[in-house]
Amino acid sequence: MTATTTTRARTARKVLGSLGVIGAAAAVAGMGTFGTFTDSTAPLNASVTSGTLVLDLTQPGGGTTLSVSADKFVPGDSIARPFELVNAGNLDMASIGLQVAAPVSSVLDTDKTNGLKLAIDSCPVAWSATNTCSGSTSVVLAPVAARDAATLTNLSSLAAGRTDHLRVTLSLAAAAGNDLQGRSSTLTLTFTGTQQTGTSR
């Protein structure tokens, strides 16, 4: 009976010893699974600043829109007003467009054939007090019906920091008939600049 007890005790010790060895092996295997070497580069700094698109209009008396009105117009009459268009931002523009609204509207601005016509010219220097140019003028907008939206041409102010010396002329068609007598319109001109398309850099 004593021999049997001794044999069982030895067997138990052997089993426990075997379990201990397996546990240690598992622990070593676990360390091999989760242990890695790493390395990192120095940071790459990227700095981005967006540009600004600024289109200013200046005229006698100030203001950001250009209003043109005249009394006692007859067929063949015209009125001209100088103003400056300034690209005051740091971005070049792809285009500058003109939109015309009529807070006070009549057949004068709705009749595209015999109604009011609008044209814009450019001078390399500021226009004189009598609306004349001491240099060679260029056409920015050929005469169009007063309410037609348009894209302007021959502008220096497409480039950042540049200014255009412009003159707007409003005229009444010589063929205007009696149905345009005694009518009133007030036109407000607004210029809108559009940025150039973004590119890969």
Average pLDDT? 79
Largest sheet data: 5 strands, antiparallel
- Number of domains as seen in the coordinates: 2
The total of beta strands comes to 9
What percent of residues adopt helix (DSSP H or I)?
A: 10-25%
Strand order of the largest sheet: 1-3-8-5-6
Please name the CATH topology of the largest domain.
Answer: Jelly Rolls
Q: Spans of 5+ residues with little confidence (pLDDT < 50)?
A: 5-26
Quaternary structure type: single chain
Strand content: 25-35%
**CATH architectural category of the largest domain:** Sandwich
Task: Name the structural class.
Answer: alpha+beta
> Which shape, going by the Cα principal axes?
elongated
Instruction: Note the gap between the termini.
Output: 92 Å
Radius of gyration: 41 Å
Written as H for each helix and E for each strand, in order along the chain, the element string is HEEEEHEEEEE
Descriptive overview:
By secondary structure, this protein is an alpha+beta fold. It has two domains: 35 residues; 141 residues, Jelly Rolls (Sandwich), CATH 2.60.120. It is built from two helices and nine strands, in the order H-E-E-E-E-H-E-E-E-E-E. The strands form two sheets. It has a five-stranded antiparallel beta sheet with strand order 1-3-8-5-6. It has a four-stranded antiparallel beta sheet with strand order 2-9-4-7, with no helix packed on it. The longest helix is centred in the first third of the chain and has 33 residues. The radius of gyration is 41 Å and the shape is elongated.
